Amino acid sequence: MAKVSSIERNKKRQRLVAKYAAKRAELKAIARNIELPVEERFAAQLKLADLPRNSAPSRVRNRCQVSGRPRGYYRKMKMSRIALRELGSFGLIPGLVKSSW
Fold first, then answer.
1. In percent, how much of the chain has pLDDT > 70?
2. Is 46 exposed, middle or buried (CB count within 10 Å of its CB: 0-12, 13-18, 19+)?
3. Fewer Cβ close by (within 10 Å): the C or N end of the chain?
4. Count of C-beta atoms within a 10 Å radius of residue 34
5. Using CA atoms, how far apart are residues 55 and 47, in angstroms rounded to an integer?
6. What architecture is the 1-61 domain classified under in CATH?
7. Integer Cα distance of 53 and 71 in angstroms
């Protein structure tokens, strides 16, 4: 089980990403538009830099929904390899069959 503080920090980042997503997208569109004057584009970049760092989507870490483990994460199942194996062994994941030979 991951530290509770790490899990909560990641949840806070997810909330900030959702809160600032529209504003961030708008400023990025202005900064990338070549047809606009350079001063306006630069001002948009400065405003983008003023947003909280944790509101950037790249700062969010994929974590297991079951254990909070940050590594060995399967996106499709939203859980770590260990939790996936455990739940699969108990037959709790539909369509997952543990191979044996």
1. 100
2. exposed
3. C
4. 6
5. 13
6. Orthogonal Bundle (1.10)
7. 23
Write the pLDDT tens digit of every residue in 42-89.
999 999 999 999 999 999 999 999 999 999 999 999 999 999 999 998
* pTM recorded for the entire structure: 0.83
The CA R_g of the chain, rounded to the nearest whole Å, is 20
Q: Tell me the domain boundaries of the chain.
A: 1-61, 62-93
For every residue of 64-77, which 3-state class applies, written as one string?
CCCCCCCCCEECCC
Amino acid symbol at 34: I
CB atoms within 10 A of CB 7: 18
